[in-house]
Amino acid sequence: MVVSKTKSAKETQKIARLFAQDIKKGYLKRPLVLALEGNLGSGKTTFTQGLARTLGVKEKVVSPTFVLLKIYQLPSSVNFKHLIHIDCYRLDSPKDLLRLGFKNMLKDKDAILLIEWADRVRKILPSDATWIKFKHDHSRGRILTFSDTVESKKVGVRKNHQRLVAKDDSC
Q1: In sequence order, what are the residues at sequence separation of 6 or more whose Cβ sits closer than 8 angstroms to the Cβ of residue 144?
Q2: pTM of the predicted structure, to 2 decimals
Q3: Fewer CB near the terminus (10 Å): N or C of the chain?
């Protein structure tokens, strides 16, 4: 488990950039599933924006709360072809995500599936999903906790995000 603390949106995006650099060249035989969990305002979308930008997404990234999912094409310099950004905040049950073709998404080895409010669909997520928990504490900033999974290790996710941020105060 990796725990990172950030005090600003800029620092949260820096953590996302470090994470994205690690997964950029990773190769899996199935999609990489990133499950984001946390309250409103805890940094999930801010993290997603930093990750998407580092992966080469040129479009403005906003949470797809009302459209539920947005697909971004990734450049050839990334070993994945697209980022599928899903927001489960408005879903009533995991069945709603299945109706959107989630089973097929889980078969797409060229995809990174980034799921905000993933705790709402936990029952249908693969057991090897990389969970990133966001907690916002007004006095201490944001705390991001990354789960240790075999898949995150296969794509090279570092164990030193917190140390890297601590070294560079310029965030």
Answers
A1: 3, 4, 5, 6, 12, 15, 43, 47, 132, 133, 134, 161
A2: 0.84
A3: N
